[in-house]
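Hey, why these numbers?
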Amino acid sequence: MVIDAIFKALADPTRLRTMRLLSAMELAVGELAQVLGQSQPRVSRHVGILCDAGLAERRREGSWVFLRAATSGEEGDPVLAALDRLLAIAEAENPDFAAQCHDDRRKLAAIRTSRESNAEDYFARHAGEWDELRALHTPDAQVEEQLSAALKTAPLGAVLDIGTGTGRMAELFAEDAERIVALDKNLEMLRVARAKLQHLPAAQIELVQGDFADLPFAAASFDTVLLHQVLHFAQDPALPLAEAARVTRPGGRIAIVDFAAHAKEELRDRHQHARLGFTDQQMRDLLRASGFTPSDPIALEGAELVVKIWLGTRRKLPASDISTPRKEAIS
């Protein structure tokens, strides 16, 4: 990180305001322009300067570009941490800057409200489908209670929530995780999750668009990996599990929540399920083949569809198997 580039990047009131905003939450370029009251091209130029200086990061989701304050990494970057403190002190001590930041946050509240409204619209359009499926299986609250009990026996560390959907799993474990990355392929669902998770600290939660069969993360990046009601969408479940294993650190854990094998063929057409659940033997074989040592499964019975929680621990593999990292899919 080049110090003179950092100070040049911060030598502008708009970029100072931008850094304070990004410390609060991840924002799309258009949302940032709305808060700052400037044109999108102008804001994009400011953003480019911040990114070039290593102070902000871009991530593309479809036609949108989202921005977040640069992460300091596992060890913590003292320069980034010091800059964040410096801007907080400046806001506390400088009345004009404080007034501008207060006004920006007022506008930021409108962005949050708009996101929540869009999420509610999405839920309203799909509520019937989800209610129909929920009626067939164990209530979500019971599943979450059992999953929490199983995973919180040890530190969660860095968590990857594959197929985050509404973001519920990320929300459930946010308090106990060091950080959470919530991944989904569906852009609309990812924006629903963003609305649900926007109350969490920006440095703790990251939302990423990606495919569970080609995860955009380096090998051995996570301590805990979750696949909650996701694997039944895979034509070949071995592929996402192999990717999950690749990004899980040796000794790390995986938790798969899905249906036990069933014969409800209508779920293929009505809900696009590629697999009609899994037997315990199938899941044991899949976990072992991908590099996990399976534990005893947990069954939540009493409904038409039985929900299972399958757990596994990542085996230690030769360094040659995990030494080739993949670059994150960010622009």
In short: The chain has two domains: 3-109, 136-321. The first strand starts at residue 27 and ends at 28. The radius of gyration is 21 Å.
